Amino acid sequence: MQLLDPLSAAIVLGGTLAATLLRCGWRDARAALRTLARLAARPFDSTHVRAELAAQVQEIGEDGILRAEPHHFGDGEFDDLSEALIRHRSIKALHEEHARHRERRQAAAESAARVLGEAAELAPVLGLAGTLVALGGFAAAADADYARSIGTAVITTLYGLVFANFVFAPLAAGLARRARAEERERQELIDWLAAAVERSIPREPTDAVEKAAA
Question: Where does the record say this protein resides (predicted)?
Fold first, then answer.
């Protein structure tokens, strides 16, 4: 049996991608492709982001939250967080902006995982379909082509299992691990940033609040 059969691999992979697209739709498929593209890029660098945020924290500490200017350094979330912090002068606004970005990232990761999970489920089915097509050709096959038909029937099932368990499922797991690690690092940075600037945000005097309540 020839293990490398480009035609059988193309049939199984193409059929899997087409069936996944029909099941999930263009929107989720595009979201999955964008998320996969980010998987090939460098992971989130919390050390670099912390160093960039340190300049913002230092400025707030020196000039106060009222006179500080937002710092932008290329990370979409933390650029928006800096804008929200300076505009609203509120730790609450910082956490709310972070929650919005986190929800968008989680939605994209879940869409990608769903698409890859569907592909992992469909790949063995398409491999079996290729096997059935090859088996259907046995009756019409000449003696010289009989062994080749047997090999094609077996190899398509093998390709379905390989694509499911060594391509799509590992990609889905890799995306999930990357997403969890990034969320942990971003949350740690948010907590650090909030603690660093909290003392620079003006508050109402406690005595005045207590007198007003009395």
Answer: Cell membrane; Membrane
The model's pTM is: 0.79
Structure tokens at 141: 């096959």
Ranked by mean pLDDT, the top range of 2-6, 39-43, 131-135, 186-190 is 186-190
If phi > 0 it is left, if psi is from -120 to 50 it is alpha, else beta; for residue 201 that is beta
What is the DSSP secondary-structure string of 57-101?
HHHHHHH-TTT------S-HHHHHHHHHHHHH--HHHHHHHHHHH
Domain ranges in the chain? Answer: 6-201
pLDDT of residue 207: 46
Q: CA dihedral in degrees (189, 70, 94, 206; nearest 10)?
A: 110
Instruction: Answer for the pair 174, 144: CB distance below 8 angstroms, yes or no.
Output: no
- Angle (CA) 159 13 158, round 5°: 5
DSSP 47: H
Q: Give the count of beta carbons closer than 10 Å to the beta carbon of residue 116.
A: 25
**How many CA atoms within 13 Å lie on the side-chain side of 54?**
6
Given a cut of 60, whether residue 210 has pLDDT beyond it is no
SS3 149: helix
